[in-house]
UniProtKB/TrEMBL annotation:
Pfam families per the UniProt record, alphabetical: TatD_DNase
Region (Disordered), start-end ranges: 257-289
InterPro entries (alphabetical): Metal_Hydrolase, Metallo-hydrolase/TatD-type, TatD-like
PANTHER family xrefs: CUT9-INTERACTING PROTEIN SCN1
Protein name: Cut9 interacting protein Scn1
Segments passing through the bilayer: none
Biased composition (Basic and acidic residues): 271-281
Protein backbone atom coordinates (compact mmCIF):
# COMPACT_ATOMS: atom_id res chain seq x y z
CA UNK A 1 0.00 0.00 0.00
CA UNK A 2 1.16 3.52 -0.67
CA UNK A 3 2.56 5.23 2.41
CA UNK A 4 -0.29 7.29 3.82
CA UNK A 5 0.43 8.35 7.38
CA UNK A 6 -2.89 8.14 9.21
CA UNK A 7 -1.84 9.41 12.62
CA UNK A 8 -4.38 6.88 13.96
CA UNK A 9 -2.13 3.79 14.03
CA UNK A 10 -1.99 3.56 17.83
CA UNK A 11 -5.69 4.17 18.42
CA UNK A 12 -7.64 1.01 19.20
CA UNK A 13 -9.87 0.12 16.24
CA UNK A 14 -13.60 0.23 17.18
CA UNK A 15 -14.76 -3.03 15.66
CA UNK A 16 -17.70 -3.12 18.09
CA UNK A 17 -19.35 -0.23 16.22
CA UNK A 18 -19.79 -2.36 13.10
CA UNK A 19 -17.58 -2.58 10.00
CA UNK A 20 -19.11 -3.46 6.62
CA UNK A 21 -17.23 -4.63 3.53
CA UNK A 22 -18.97 -3.13 0.48
CA UNK A 23 -17.33 -5.41 -2.12
CA UNK A 24 -15.49 -8.73 -1.83
CA UNK A 25 -15.07 -12.16 -3.45
CA UNK A 26 -14.62 -14.84 -0.73
CA UNK A 27 -16.54 -17.36 -2.86
CA UNK A 28 -13.41 -17.53 -5.04
CA UNK A 29 -11.95 -19.57 -2.15
CA UNK A 30 -14.88 -21.61 -0.86
CA UNK A 31 -12.99 -23.10 2.07
CA UNK A 32 -12.49 -19.60 3.49
CA UNK A 33 -16.25 -19.07 3.86
CA UNK A 34 -16.27 -21.01 7.12
CA UNK A 35 -14.14 -18.27 8.68
CA UNK A 36 -16.79 -15.56 8.14
CA UNK A 37 -18.49 -16.47 11.43
CA UNK A 38 -15.31 -15.59 13.36
CA UNK A 39 -14.41 -12.42 11.42
CA UNK A 40 -14.37 -9.01 13.08
CA UNK A 41 -16.02 -7.43 10.02
CA UNK A 42 -19.74 -7.53 10.74
CA UNK A 43 -21.04 -8.15 7.21
CA UNK A 44 -19.66 -8.86 3.74
CA UNK A 45 -21.22 -7.76 0.46
CA UNK A 46 -20.24 -10.75 -1.69
CA UNK A 47 -20.04 -10.46 -5.48
CA UNK A 48 -20.82 -13.13 -8.06
CA UNK A 49 -18.97 -12.74 -11.35
CA UNK A 50 -19.42 -15.76 -13.63
CA UNK A 51 -21.32 -19.01 -14.15
CA UNK A 52 -19.35 -20.97 -11.56
CA UNK A 53 -19.96 -18.74 -8.54
CA UNK A 54 -23.63 -17.67 -8.81
CA UNK A 55 -24.96 -20.68 -6.90
CA UNK A 56 -22.09 -20.54 -4.38
CA UNK A 57 -23.03 -16.96 -3.46
CA UNK A 58 -26.72 -17.92 -3.29
CA UNK A 59 -26.11 -21.00 -1.13
CA UNK A 60 -23.97 -19.14 1.34
CA UNK A 61 -26.49 -16.30 1.55
CA UNK A 62 -29.09 -18.93 2.47
CA UNK A 63 -26.94 -19.84 5.49
CA UNK A 64 -25.70 -16.44 6.62
CA UNK A 65 -27.87 -13.88 4.84
CA UNK A 66 -28.44 -10.48 6.44
CA UNK A 67 -31.98 -9.57 7.54
CA UNK A 68 -34.17 -7.52 5.23
CA UNK A 69 -34.07 -4.66 7.77
CA UNK A 70 -30.91 -2.66 8.57
CA UNK A 71 -31.63 -2.29 12.31
CA UNK A 72 -30.52 -5.78 13.51
CA UNK A 73 -27.18 -5.75 11.69
CA UNK A 74 -26.36 -2.14 12.53
CA UNK A 75 -27.34 -2.31 16.19
CA UNK A 76 -25.92 -5.77 16.97
CA UNK A 77 -23.84 -5.79 20.16
CA UNK A 78 -22.69 -9.36 19.53
CA UNK A 79 -21.81 -11.08 16.26
CA UNK A 80 -25.14 -11.44 14.41
CA UNK A 81 -26.19 -14.59 12.58
CA UNK A 82 -26.63 -12.71 9.30
CA UNK A 83 -23.21 -11.80 7.91
CA UNK A 84 -23.69 -11.84 4.12
CA UNK A 85 -25.37 -9.60 1.52
CA UNK A 86 -25.29 -11.46 -1.83
CA UNK A 87 -24.80 -9.77 -5.17
CA UNK A 88 -25.49 -11.49 -8.49
CA UNK A 89 -23.96 -10.34 -11.76
CA UNK A 90 -21.77 -11.17 -14.74
CA UNK A 91 -18.36 -9.47 -14.69
CA UNK A 92 -16.95 -7.89 -17.90
CA UNK A 93 -14.03 -10.36 -17.76
CA UNK A 94 -16.54 -13.11 -18.63
CA UNK A 95 -18.87 -11.08 -20.87
CA UNK A 96 -17.69 -12.89 -24.03
CA UNK A 97 -19.32 -16.07 -22.67
CA UNK A 98 -22.75 -14.51 -23.36
CA UNK A 99 -24.59 -13.87 -26.62
CA UNK A 100 -27.57 -11.55 -27.04
CA UNK A 101 -30.62 -13.60 -28.01
CA UNK A 102 -33.22 -10.91 -27.30
CA UNK A 103 -35.76 -9.98 -29.97
CA UNK A 104 -34.29 -6.51 -30.44
CA UNK A 105 -30.75 -7.79 -31.00
CA UNK A 106 -29.27 -8.39 -34.44
CA UNK A 107 -30.04 -11.65 -36.23
CA UNK A 108 -26.32 -12.42 -36.11
CA UNK A 109 -26.31 -12.19 -32.32
CA UNK A 110 -29.52 -14.19 -31.86
CA UNK A 111 -28.43 -17.07 -34.08
CA UNK A 112 -25.13 -18.42 -32.79
CA UNK A 113 -24.24 -21.10 -35.33
CA UNK A 114 -20.93 -22.00 -33.70
CA UNK A 115 -18.49 -21.07 -30.97
CA UNK A 116 -16.12 -19.93 -33.69
CA UNK A 117 -18.65 -17.46 -35.14
CA UNK A 118 -19.66 -16.05 -31.75
CA UNK A 119 -16.16 -15.57 -30.36
CA UNK A 120 -14.99 -14.32 -33.73
CA UNK A 121 -17.45 -11.44 -33.40
CA UNK A 122 -17.11 -10.46 -29.72
CA UNK A 123 -13.34 -10.86 -29.22
CA UNK A 124 -10.68 -8.50 -30.58
CA UNK A 125 -8.66 -9.25 -32.60
CA UNK A 126 -10.87 -11.98 -33.99
CA UNK A 127 -9.60 -15.44 -32.92
CA UNK A 128 -11.44 -17.26 -35.74
CA UNK A 129 -8.26 -18.97 -36.89
CA UNK A 130 -6.97 -19.79 -33.40
CA UNK A 131 -8.73 -23.12 -33.02
CA UNK A 132 -6.91 -24.14 -29.84
CA UNK A 133 -7.92 -20.90 -28.09
CA UNK A 134 -11.57 -21.21 -29.17
CA UNK A 135 -11.70 -24.85 -28.00
CA UNK A 136 -10.53 -23.66 -24.56
CA UNK A 137 -13.55 -21.36 -24.21
CA UNK A 138 -16.95 -22.53 -22.91
CA UNK A 139 -19.98 -22.82 -25.16
CA UNK A 140 -21.60 -19.37 -25.20
CA UNK A 141 -24.78 -18.90 -23.16
CA UNK A 142 -27.86 -16.87 -24.18
CA UNK A 143 -28.40 -13.59 -22.37
CA UNK A 144 -32.02 -14.56 -21.66
CA UNK A 145 -30.80 -17.48 -19.51
CA UNK A 146 -28.45 -15.22 -17.56
CA UNK A 147 -31.16 -12.63 -16.88
CA UNK A 148 -33.67 -15.32 -15.89
CA UNK A 149 -31.16 -16.83 -13.45
CA UNK A 150 -30.24 -13.45 -11.98
CA UNK A 151 -33.89 -12.47 -11.59
CA UNK A 152 -34.58 -15.76 -9.78
CA UNK A 153 -31.72 -15.13 -7.33
CA UNK A 154 -32.93 -11.57 -6.69
CA UNK A 155 -36.47 -12.77 -6.03
CA UNK A 156 -35.22 -15.31 -3.49
CA UNK A 157 -32.96 -12.74 -1.79
CA UNK A 158 -34.92 -9.48 -1.29
CA UNK A 159 -31.93 -7.29 -0.39
CA UNK A 160 -29.49 -8.82 -2.89
CA UNK A 161 -27.57 -6.47 -5.19
CA UNK A 162 -26.70 -6.75 -8.87
CA UNK A 163 -22.94 -7.07 -9.34
CA UNK A 164 -20.19 -7.26 -10.09
CA UNK A 165 -20.88 -5.77 -13.51
CA UNK A 166 -19.14 -3.13 -15.60
CA UNK A 167 -16.58 -2.38 -18.31
CA UNK A 168 -12.87 -3.11 -18.62
CA UNK A 169 -10.78 -1.88 -21.52
CA UNK A 170 -7.45 -3.26 -20.31
CA UNK A 171 -8.45 -6.85 -19.50
CA UNK A 172 -6.95 -9.61 -21.65
CA UNK A 173 -8.53 -13.05 -21.76
CA UNK A 174 -6.41 -15.88 -20.28
CA UNK A 175 -4.93 -18.08 -23.01
CA UNK A 176 -4.12 -21.76 -23.18
CA UNK A 177 -0.47 -21.65 -22.04
CA UNK A 178 0.37 -22.06 -18.36
CA UNK A 179 2.62 -19.48 -16.72
CA UNK A 180 4.61 -22.36 -15.28
CA UNK A 181 4.41 -25.77 -16.93
CA UNK A 182 4.60 -27.33 -13.49
CA UNK A 183 1.64 -25.29 -12.29
CA UNK A 184 -1.04 -27.32 -10.57
CA UNK A 185 -4.44 -25.77 -10.13
CA UNK A 186 -5.28 -24.99 -6.54
CA UNK A 187 -8.32 -27.21 -5.77
CA UNK A 188 -9.47 -24.64 -3.19
CA UNK A 189 -10.13 -22.04 -5.91
CA UNK A 190 -13.52 -21.85 -7.61
CA UNK A 191 -13.21 -22.85 -11.30
CA UNK A 192 -13.52 -20.37 -14.13
CA UNK A 193 -10.78 -17.91 -13.16
CA UNK A 194 -7.33 -17.47 -14.65
CA UNK A 195 -6.14 -20.86 -13.37
CA UNK A 196 -2.44 -20.13 -13.82
CA UNK A 197 -2.68 -19.32 -17.53
CA UNK A 198 -0.75 -16.63 -19.36
CA UNK A 199 -2.79 -13.76 -20.74
CA UNK A 200 -3.62 -13.94 -24.44
CA UNK A 201 -3.53 -10.95 -26.83
CA UNK A 202 -7.35 -11.06 -26.98
CA UNK A 203 -9.78 -8.57 -25.44
CA UNK A 204 -13.58 -8.48 -25.26
CA UNK A 205 -15.21 -6.05 -27.69
CA UNK A 206 -16.28 -2.96 -25.73
CA UNK A 207 -19.68 -2.70 -27.43
CA UNK A 208 -20.39 -6.26 -26.37
CA UNK A 209 -19.42 -5.42 -22.80
CA UNK A 210 -21.73 -2.40 -22.90
CA UNK A 211 -24.62 -4.53 -24.15
CA UNK A 212 -24.28 -6.89 -21.19
CA UNK A 213 -23.79 -4.07 -18.68
CA UNK A 214 -26.88 -2.23 -19.92
CA UNK A 215 -29.03 -5.37 -19.79
CA UNK A 216 -28.05 -5.95 -16.15
CA UNK A 217 -28.58 -2.29 -15.23
CA UNK A 218 -32.07 -2.50 -16.74
CA UNK A 219 -32.83 -5.60 -14.65
CA UNK A 220 -31.57 -3.86 -11.50
CA UNK A 221 -33.87 -0.94 -12.32
CA UNK A 222 -36.85 -3.22 -12.80
CA UNK A 223 -36.11 -5.01 -9.50
CA UNK A 224 -35.08 -1.76 -7.74
CA UNK A 225 -31.75 -3.16 -6.56
CA UNK A 226 -28.47 -1.43 -5.90
CA UNK A 227 -25.56 -2.18 -8.23
CA UNK A 228 -21.79 -2.62 -7.82
CA UNK A 229 -19.91 -1.45 -10.92
CA UNK A 230 -16.40 -2.27 -12.14
CA UNK A 231 -14.66 0.25 -14.38
CA UNK A 232 -11.04 -0.02 -15.55
CA UNK A 233 -9.49 2.21 -18.22
CA UNK A 234 -13.03 3.16 -19.25
CA UNK A 235 -14.25 5.87 -16.88
CA UNK A 236 -15.82 8.03 -19.58
CA UNK A 237 -17.57 5.11 -21.27
CA UNK A 238 -18.84 3.79 -17.93
CA UNK A 239 -20.43 7.16 -17.23
CA UNK A 240 -21.95 7.39 -20.72
CA UNK A 241 -23.37 3.86 -20.41
CA UNK A 242 -24.90 4.60 -17.01
CA UNK A 243 -26.21 7.95 -18.21
CA UNK A 244 -27.96 6.33 -21.17
CA UNK A 245 -30.10 4.26 -18.78
CA UNK A 246 -31.49 7.30 -16.97
CA UNK A 247 -31.81 9.52 -20.08
CA UNK A 248 -35.20 11.23 -19.93
CA UNK A 249 -35.60 10.64 -16.19
CA UNK A 250 -33.34 13.48 -15.01
CA UNK A 251 -34.52 15.56 -12.07
CA UNK A 252 -35.22 19.24 -12.75
CA UNK A 253 -32.51 21.58 -11.50
CA UNK A 254 -34.07 24.73 -10.08
CA UNK A 255 -32.48 28.05 -9.28
CA UNK A 256 -32.60 29.33 -5.69
CA UNK A 257 -35.46 31.62 -6.62
CA UNK A 258 -37.41 28.77 -8.21
CA UNK A 259 -36.82 26.51 -5.19
CA UNK A 260 -38.08 29.23 -2.85
CA UNK A 261 -41.17 29.82 -5.00
CA UNK A 262 -41.91 26.08 -5.27
CA UNK A 263 -41.58 25.69 -1.49
CA UNK A 264 -44.15 28.44 -0.85
CA UNK A 265 -46.54 27.14 -3.51
CA UNK A 266 -46.15 23.60 -2.19
CA UNK A 267 -47.13 24.70 1.31
CA UNK A 268 -50.22 26.43 -0.04
CA UNK A 269 -51.32 23.29 -1.86
CA UNK A 270 -50.70 21.12 1.19
CA UNK A 271 -53.01 23.37 3.24
CA UNK A 272 -55.74 23.45 0.61
CA UNK A 273 -58.93 21.63 1.67
CA UNK A 274 -59.99 18.75 -0.52
CA UNK A 275 -63.64 18.48 -1.59
CA UNK A 276 -65.80 15.96 0.23
CA UNK A 277 -65.16 12.37 -0.78
CA UNK A 278 -62.06 13.25 -2.79
CA UNK A 279 -59.04 11.15 -1.83
CA UNK A 280 -55.42 11.34 -2.80
CA UNK A 281 -54.49 8.28 -4.81
CA UNK A 282 -50.82 7.32 -4.84
CA UNK A 283 -49.32 6.99 -8.28
CA UNK A 284 -48.09 3.52 -9.12
CA UNK A 285 -44.37 3.62 -9.86
CA UNK A 286 -43.55 2.09 -13.21
CA UNK A 287 -40.32 0.08 -13.58
CA UNK A 288 -37.34 2.24 -14.45
CA UNK A 289 -34.44 1.17 -16.70
CA UNK A 290 -31.81 2.25 -14.16
CA UNK A 291 -30.98 1.15 -10.59
CA UNK A 292 -31.80 3.37 -7.60
CA UNK A 293 -28.23 3.24 -6.22
CA UNK A 294 -24.86 2.55 -7.83
CA UNK A 295 -21.47 1.96 -6.21
CA UNK A 296 -18.39 2.54 -8.35
CA UNK A 297 -16.17 0.01 -6.62
CA UNK A 298 -12.45 0.64 -6.03
CA UNK A 299 -13.04 3.90 -7.87
CA UNK A 300 -9.86 4.91 -9.69
CA UNK A 301 -11.04 7.86 -11.77
CA UNK A 302 -9.78 11.42 -11.23
CA UNK A 303 -11.46 13.73 -8.75
CA UNK A 304 -12.64 16.06 -11.60
CA UNK A 305 -15.02 13.38 -12.88
CA UNK A 306 -16.86 13.18 -9.56
CA UNK A 307 -18.88 16.26 -10.52
CA UNK A 308 -20.62 14.49 -13.37
CA UNK A 309 -21.75 11.68 -11.04
CA UNK A 310 -22.93 14.09 -8.35
CA UNK A 311 -24.86 16.48 -10.59
CA UNK A 312 -28.25 17.27 -8.97
CA UNK A 313 -30.13 16.21 -12.12
CA UNK A 314 -29.02 12.57 -11.83
CA UNK A 315 -31.91 10.42 -10.51
CA UNK A 316 -29.54 7.81 -9.06
CA UNK A 317 -27.59 7.91 -5.80
CA UNK A 318 -23.94 7.27 -6.66
CA UNK A 319 -21.53 5.86 -4.07
CA UNK A 320 -17.75 5.41 -4.32
CA UNK A 321 -15.91 2.61 -2.55
CA UNK A 322 -12.17 2.32 -1.97
CA UNK A 323 -9.82 -0.56 -1.20
CA UNK A 324 -6.25 -0.85 -0.02
CA UNK A 325 -5.59 -3.53 -2.65
CA UNK A 326 -6.57 -1.39 -5.65
CA UNK A 327 -6.55 2.28 -4.70
CA UNK A 328 -3.40 2.20 -2.58
CA UNK A 329 -1.50 -0.67 -4.20
CA UNK A 330 1.21 1.65 -5.55
CA UNK A 331 2.87 4.92 -4.60
CA UNK A 332 0.18 6.88 -6.46
CA UNK A 333 -1.62 9.40 -4.27
CA UNK A 334 -4.47 10.02 -6.74
CA UNK A 335 -6.98 8.33 -4.44
CA UNK A 336 -6.20 10.80 -1.66
CA UNK A 337 -7.62 13.73 -3.63
CA UNK A 338 -10.62 11.69 -4.76
CA UNK A 339 -11.47 10.57 -1.22
CA UNK A 340 -11.27 14.17 -0.03
CA UNK A 341 -13.69 15.22 -2.77
CA UNK A 342 -16.29 12.44 -2.29
CA UNK A 343 -19.23 13.63 -0.13
CA UNK A 344 -19.11 12.16 3.36
CA UNK A 345 -22.38 10.28 2.89
CA UNK A 346 -21.37 8.64 -0.41
CA UNK A 347 -18.11 6.89 0.54
CA UNK A 348 -17.70 3.18 1.31
CA UNK A 349 -14.87 0.86 2.36
CA UNK A 350 -14.15 -2.52 0.77
CA UNK A 351 -11.54 -5.27 0.80
CA UNK A 352 -12.02 -6.63 -2.78
CA UNK A 353 -10.33 -9.80 -1.50
CA UNK A 354 -10.81 -13.34 -2.85
CA UNK A 355 -10.82 -15.08 0.55
CA UNK A 356 -12.56 -14.44 3.88
CA UNK A 357 -10.69 -14.38 7.19
CA UNK A 358 -8.05 -12.38 9.04
CA UNK A 359 -6.51 -10.88 5.90
CA UNK A 360 -9.88 -9.45 4.89
CA UNK A 361 -10.31 -7.95 8.36
CA UNK A 362 -6.84 -6.43 8.12
CA UNK A 363 -7.62 -4.84 4.76
CA UNK A 364 -10.87 -3.39 6.07
CA UNK A 365 -9.11 -1.86 9.06
CA UNK A 366 -6.37 -0.51 6.79
CA UNK A 367 -8.71 1.22 4.33
CA UNK A 368 -10.96 2.63 7.07
CA UNK A 369 -8.01 4.09 8.98
CA UNK A 370 -6.81 5.64 5.72
CA UNK A 371 -10.22 7.10 4.82
CA UNK A 372 -10.61 8.52 8.34
CA UNK A 373 -7.20 10.19 8.17
CA UNK A 374 -7.84 11.70 4.72
CA UNK A 375 -11.31 12.91 5.74
CA UNK A 376 -10.12 14.22 9.11
CA UNK A 377 -12.53 11.93 10.98
CA UNK A 378 -11.93 10.22 14.30
CA UNK A 379 -12.03 6.42 14.01
CA UNK A 380 -15.30 6.27 15.93
CA UNK A 381 -16.97 8.92 13.77
CA UNK A 382 -15.60 7.37 10.58
CA UNK A 383 -16.69 3.81 11.35
CA UNK A 384 -20.19 5.07 12.20
CA UNK A 385 -20.38 7.18 9.02
CA UNK A 386 -19.22 4.30 6.80
CA UNK A 387 -21.71 1.93 8.46
CA UNK A 388 -24.52 4.40 7.82
CA UNK A 389 -23.43 4.81 4.20
CA UNK A 390 -23.34 1.04 3.68
CA UNK A 391 -26.86 0.66 5.10
CA UNK A 392 -28.05 3.46 2.82
CA UNK A 393 -26.43 1.83 -0.22
CA UNK A 394 -27.70 -1.70 0.49
CA UNK A 395 -31.12 -1.05 2.03
CA UNK A 396 -31.93 2.32 0.49
CA UNK A 397 -32.51 3.81 3.94
CA UNK A 398 -30.67 6.66 5.59
CA UNK A 399 -29.42 5.85 9.07
Amino acid sequence: MAEVETGLEKELFPWHLGVFDAHCHPTDTVASLDSIASMKTRALTIMATREQDQSIVANFANKLGVSEEPMPILMATEKPLGRVVPSFGWHPWFSHHIYDDRANSSVQDRQVSSKRDHYGRVICPSPRDDQEFIRSLPDPRPLSDLLYETRSHLERHPIALVGEIGLDRSFRIPGTILIDNEYEKDPALTPGGRDGRQLSPYRVDLDHQRMLLTAQLNLAGEMQRAVSVHGVASHGIVFETLKATWQGYEKPVLSKRQRKRRASVGTAYENEDKSEGEQRKPKLASPKPFPPRICLHSYSGPSDTLKQYLHPSIPVEIFFSFSALVNFSSQSKKAVGVIKAVPDNRILGESDLHAAGDRMDDLMEEIIRTICHIKGWSLEAGVKQLASNWAHFVFGQRW
